[in-house]
Every structure is written in C-alpha cells, then in structure tokens.
Design goal:
Shape: elongated
Order of helices and strands: HHHHHHHEHEHEEHHEEEH
CATH topology of the largest domain: YojJ-like (1
Distance between the termini: 68 Å
Structural class: alpha+beta
Number of helices: 12
Mean pLDDT: 78
CATH architecture of the largest domain: 3-Layer(aba) Sandwich
CATH superfamily of the largest domain: DNA integrity scanning protein, DisA, N-terminal domain
Number of strands: 7
Helix content: 40-55%
Strand content: 5-15%
Length: 272
C-alpha cells in the first residue's frame, strides 16, 4: 500500500464504509435514471459552469467569479425544479425495492391478478390470446421477433393488445417480471404429429415455446372461450380461473416445474 494512503485507510471505520457505499448507491441509481434523458445535458451544463468558476478563481477574473458566486445560492432551488421528475423516479425506484421479499410477493400477486382479470375479460368477449410468462430461461430471441413495448403489466394493456382487428392481435405477448416485453411475437410450433391434428396454432405455439424453455404459456381460445395452460411441453386444457391464479402464483414463486397432485389431466405429447 502506498504511504500516502495509510492515513486515509487508518481513519476508515465500518460506519464510514457504510456511509460511502450508501452515497455511491444513491449516485449510481441517479445516474441510471438520468442516463439518456434531457437531465443529463443539464448536468453537463452545470459541470461546465463549475469548471468556468474554478478557472475564473484561478485566473483572478473577479467579475466573472462574482457573477457566478451570486447565482450559487439559487442553484439548489433550481436543481429541485429542474430535476423534480428524476427525483420522483429515484424515490419510486427505492420504494419498489424488494425489502425482505415482502414487496416481491405483493408484486407477484398483483401481476397475477392483472393477468387473471385480463383473461376473464377476453373470455367474456370471446377474444383469443396467447400470453407467455418468462422465468429463468430467457426468451430474447422470441421477444426480438415482435414489437417491443417494455410496459407495466396491466389488464387494460393486455386486453387492448388482443382486441380484434388490432395491429398486435396476432402473435404472443411475452412478459418479463412485471413488464410486458413485447407483443405480436412469433413462437415455435410443436412438431408433434398428434398435436398438429388436434390443436390450433395458438395451442401448438404455447406447447412449442414451453418445450424450449421453462416459461408458462396461457392460451385463451377464441372459439370455445376456454383457458389452457402449457408448461414443460404439456398442455392442461379447460382451466378454471382459480386454477389459473394458482398456476401463475406458483410459476412466479419459482415452482413452475413442480408437479401438482391436484392438477387436471394434461394433454401430453405422444412420441412420434
């Protein structure tokens, strides 16, 4: 260790380290929020003014230094006004942090409720739909085949996507966490000959994507207004709303692969 660092290190305590890390995290979160936004240009301008002020002090430009010094007391109020949206976003980001896992459980239940409500509306209107919920295996290839959305999961959004005649009606919606990643996505169809004869395109696509990943796929039939759930290459037909809620909750909790002794008989793929 360099000799000039010894006095600094010797004064560090556990509380000092925690203090430094806390400030670093706040700065990092703020940088993430303003990156690519108009606020980043404002910060750049403030940095330029600071450099100009230091240059004025060094070069003894008293008039310029006096003008900048007179503006300094009002800078705090100006920053609050200019960065009010970023400050709100930072506080919201902190509030969404999953403290002790409690917020995570609540968030999963809210997402499951939104999906269930959307499915119920589609059943009432006899609108077909295919919703795929990502888990550990990424679905980026399929997401890139559709229209990127990156929107919060909500009943109204899902219903509007699958509205008849809509531009995004065909294809699948893929959900990542609490976000609708993309719509109108193309999924691989199962090639099992039994399924080719017995199932429609949405059901075959639901089985196909679950053959290649650990995702959960929900199908709403436009003809029969029934729900089917695909997971691990199996299809569970004629699912009730209570069963759908249960499967969504178990899937979000990381138990998608667990076998349920109370499950209805599934339509499994026969070996060709």
């Amino acid at each position: 260790m360099q000799p000039f660092l010894l006095p600094i290190v010797s004064k560090l305590t556990i509380l000092s380290v925690i203090d430094i890390l806390a400030v670093a995290v706040l700065i990092y979160q703020f940088v993430l929020i303003i990156r690519g936004r108009h606020a980043a240009h404002i910060l750049t301008g403030l940095g330029v003014l600071l450099v100009v002020y230091l240059g004025a002090v060094w070069a003894h430009l008293n008039l310029l230094r006096s003008v900048l010094s007179a503006l300094a007391p009002y800078s705090a109020f100006a920053l609050i006004v200019m960065f009010q949206s970023e400050i709100r976003r930072l506080l919201s980001r902190i509030g969404r942090f999953r403290w002790l896992g409690l917020e995570g459980d609540l968030e999963r239940r809210e997402i499951a409720d939104e999906i269930v409500l959307a499915v119920q509306n589609m059943i009432d209107a006899k609108i077909g739909a295919l919703i795929v919920i990502e888990r550990e295996i990424g679905l980026r290839t399929f997401i890139e085949s559709g229209v990127a959305l990156d929107a919060v999961v909500s009943r109204d959004l899902l219903c509007s996507i699958f509205e008849r005649g809509g531009a995004l009606h065909d294809g699948a919606v893929i959900i990542q966490g609490d976000r609708v990643a993309a719509a109108a996505c193309f999924l691989p169809l199962t090639t099992n000959p039994v399924m080719l004869r017995r199932m429609g395109t949405r059901h075959r696509a639901a089985i196909g994507v679950t053959e290649e990943s650990d995702a959960l796929a929900i199908v709403v039939s436009e003809e029969t207004a029934q729900i089917a759930i695909a997971a691990r290459g199996d299809l569970e037909p004629d699912v009730s709303m209570e069963r759908l809620q249960e499967r969504l909750t178990r899937h979000a909790a990381g138990k998608a692969g667990a076998r349920d002794p109370q499950a209805k008989p599934r339509l499994k793929q026969a070996q060709p």
